[in-house]
Amino acid sequence: GLSVSSLLLELTGHLVFLRYQNYYDYPLETYLEYPIIIAQDVILIYCIMHFSGKARRALFYAVIFWGGWHMLILQKWIIDLAMNLCTFVSAASKLVQLQHLWQTKDSGQVSTLTWEMSIFTSAARIFTTVMTTNDLAVLIRFIIMLILNIWVTATILHYRKTKKT
């Protein structure tokens, strides 16, 4: 039920978003959960790669992400462009997850609760953004993420196998 491609895209979006928030010195409460989310993504990706025999590839991805993290703030236009593109990357990760669910027609071990929490987080972040920074790029990102999180959750529920008693 999990797509490694989706997780890598999501990790990329999270890293860019964290760097953007940090670069513009936005209040910590606007991005506090992102280091935790990034750590969870990294651990999950590593576990999937380790148990599928691709642990060396995980090191390659780590080096690429580390280099990208430092390149993002070389120029202001780079971080601004990256922020706008990370919305598309994060949306692509959700669409890759949707495609995987549609192809397999099985939600497998995908947690509905996790995706429901993503819906809540996106909705809360819309409110937080309006109340603190009112950054249009960030606001658009969270509105798109809210819509896609609802769509993924609905798809998971659609393909959930019911247990026969």
TrEMBL record:
Transmembrane annotation, as ranges: 31-51, 58-79, 138-159
Domain of life: Eukaryota
UniProt keyword terms in alphabetical order: Membrane, Transmembrane, Transmembrane helix
PANTHER family membership: MANNOSE-P-DOLICHOL UTILIZATION DEFECT 1 LEC35 -RELATED, SOLUTE CARRIER FAMILY 66 MEMBER 3
Protein name from the UniProt record: PQLC3 protein
